[in-house]
Amino acid sequence: METKKLTCIECPIGCEMEVGVEDGKVVFVKGNSCPRGKMYAENEVVCPKRVLTSSIRARSGEMVSVKTDQPIEKAKIFEIMEKINRTTCDLPVKVGDIVYEKIDGKANLIATTNVGV
Amino acid sequence: MKKKYDIVIIGGGPAGLAAAISAYDHGVQDVLILEREENLGGILNQCIHNGFGLTRFKESLTGPEYAWRFIDGVRERKIETLVSTTVLSVSRDKQVTAINERDGVFTIQAKAIVLAMGCRERSKGALNVAGTRPAGLYSAGTAQKYVNMKGYLPGQKVVILGSGDIGLIMARRMTLEGAKVLAVCEIMPFSSGLKRNIAQCLDDFNIPLYLNHTITKIEGKERVTGVVISKVDENKRPIVGTQRYIECDTVLFSVGLIPENELTKSAGVPLSLKTKGAIVYQNRETLIDGIFACGNVLQVHDLVDFVSEEAETAGVGAAEYVLYGNREKDVIDCKNGQNVSYVLPQKIDRNQKGIVKLYFRVTNTFKNCVIKLKSGEKVLTERKKRIAVPGEMESFLLTEELLAAVNGEIELSLEC
Amino acid sequence: MYDVLVIGGGVVGGLILRELTKYRLRVALVEKEDDVSMGQSRANSGIVHAGYDAAVGTLKAKFNLIGNRMMPSLAKDLGVKYVNNGSLVVAFSKEEIETLYELKSRGEQNGVAGLQVIDRTELLKLEPNISEEAVGALLAPTGGIVCPYELTIASIGNAMDNGAELFCGFDVCGIERAQDGFTVQSVSGQEIQAKVLINCAGIGGGKIASLLGDSIIVKGRRGQYILLDRESGDLVKHTLFFTPTKKGKGILVSPTVDGNIILGPTAEEIEDDNVETTSIGLENVTAGAKKMCKNVPLYNTITSFAGTRAYTDKHDFILEESEASPNAIHCLGIESPGLTASPAIAKYVVEELVSKHFELVKNEDFQPIRKPDYFFKNLSLEEKNEMIQKDPSYGKIVCRCEQITEGEIVRAVRENPPARNIDAVKRRTRAGMGRCQGGFCQPYVAELIARELQIPLEQVTKSGGESYLLRGKTK
Fold first, then answer.
1. How many domains are there within chain B?
2. ipTM
3. Chain C closest CA to B368's CA: distance in Å?
């Protein structure tokens, strides 16, 4: 069995956790102080994912902050960034508006601010 | 334009917005928010990363999303706002002089004022780093503004000095937007940033963090061409022989935040040398009746959730001041004792009912210690603490019963 | 073909240029940097010396005294801040008191009025923060302060308003003598013809001299400074000097005309115009300041920087015709008290040296008064509102630390001599000069420069050349 050390990124506490992995399966999680931490650890050792935040330039030039509405594979971050850099939108745009559907096949890229509203 | 308001709030960032909403909901609707930028939301607008609001909303929001929850609240209540308006001075008798393009220079009389101007970054200039002063030296926040608000990359090969949260966040943002972050140097033996930010901003991108290191020389005539970094000893003095040259075109400085209290001073509000913000009671009233302060102008917070909480307290305080006038106070002084760098509020008025949340920071990293609240020699209460670090603001709840037992002053200390 | 071409846009070149525009001459100034006032006149103590320092009979002594007397009205004409704050040379021992009497006597021989040696009690009344160790001082009531780059910019601006031309980015690399004058070539391939040349190139003056066939060795001395926040502006009122010793003059502690406190300079021999600060240098500055005053609020440091001071082994001003090239004039080795002396030098050079080449006919249109670079924040309420009504951009604060408006920044880009980069705007308006050091306002200032010059944002520089702020768009 292999044990991995992780810092939880779910909240500001940043619990230091230990995860036991055997045959690609999580056997135990130690050091977490909430269920979210356990879930994070379980995902992190199998397929790490992150919510990606960035910004896009609207056609009229304004910057619009965006994020993926669910975590995407960490390994694909730079690939998705390239898509984000080519993405644009028209104004007005509101918090939650989808600016790129299923950017990794699953997560939508959504606006996180209101511009031109 | 109207020249008299019950409450004038200076600053339309997270503190000002939350204070306005809570004052309104507490029965004072004649409120004006003055904001110097074009948009409400303050620094949150450029903090486009996520992780805000976990305490308050139980979800991870980006800075703008967090701001919009409050901006929407202000708009729903039709609270008046004046943006692109800079306040020039505040007087003791609660006159606010401001300037904008449309109205020129004008003065507003308020019954109560809430100071919510936030903080600014400590500049690179304050550090006396040896070397040249070329282009490519930025405070982390300025770089954040260029990248997130303007869509420009300030540099391609970056060294960051200071591992506070803004520095860590910018290490990730610069990387995502196409730069190579070569090193983050921290003069202290520990990072003052959150652990999760070290994990997700540095470790995720294999960015090295050099603890006990600082930049000892900046090179480059027109644009930065490189820096020399050195290890430091326990007195933070560079150790000879540990110099290392790193070729780079950009240096970001993330070396601390300072409450922006120029207006507070213009009103003659007494400041604390420790927090560099006003001395306040638990309702966040300063030592000048009817002038309140909250958020990062009062003390630099780690989390915006606590800024909102503090601002709501101030909003209620300001509303009560407008509704009921100045009320007599029964004052307890709060002092910071051993291993505690400051406590806030610095004064507690026993006539104000309810539990008082005493915020404090510790001076160093402590393990398995005890927080003690004393009045004179008497220990009123104590609490065990597994770990306490300077980077994380701590709090301690004081009940009315506890305060009733206090004579004159209390002192909060940390003992190991 | 210009009548006179001034090489070097420092305070000496600037004031000479302005002096020339008082006559019917076609004049221009070339400067190698992207803005004027980029050498010695950029990073300098800004002291208007009383005149007790220079050896009796030297040009330094002569022009110091005259310049000191000219400065108040010149500053007024040019709309430049000048404060007659008085200087104090502080003694820390009995021996040093003796030196003060020597200085006093030298000053009196030089013609300096009002010099007085005061005891510790008197000193303490004038400067409550003076060190416990100080035993007395020489008070020089005619000492003052001025901002060196403000004076330079204003003099060149005024000269341009009176018809002079300015060529920035003109790095002289060749001078060809022709029958009736010179052809001056720049590194970038430009050429300018002039009948008379005036070499005011400061640290680069030796190179210009050699292009003219003369051998004058100009060396550089570096001075490092620390600047404190205006919040600490009441640390001292006078300019405080140490009593000079064999080792030199030591650092000074002085208010600036903008209300900051300046500490420095060090004095280090350097090879070129190296303006790096060093940790040892800055430590020497702080150590000196702590020796001079108690409670020096070093926590209020807002920046540190270094400048160069050019000198020659003659250690006196060189104001003379070129030996090898008739029609060329050298103004070199203008070390301290060069800033103080500069108005007097300008007058002398034009009236006594340039006059040999031209019959000086008065320019009846000369307008000595420069529309002042007034700071909006210093205007009355009525004046402010009048300006905002005319131009709303004066109602937009861009630099919050120094309360500088968009209108002032735009004016700096449009007026003579036009600012074309962030530092040039900073020197004219103080935007970015305050406690946040441009952290908040730099992106705004950059956008205004881009807008006014009609260039993309990524072409805006900090200080010309390749000092670009940005590395392109992210999307």
1. 3
2. 0.95
3. 34
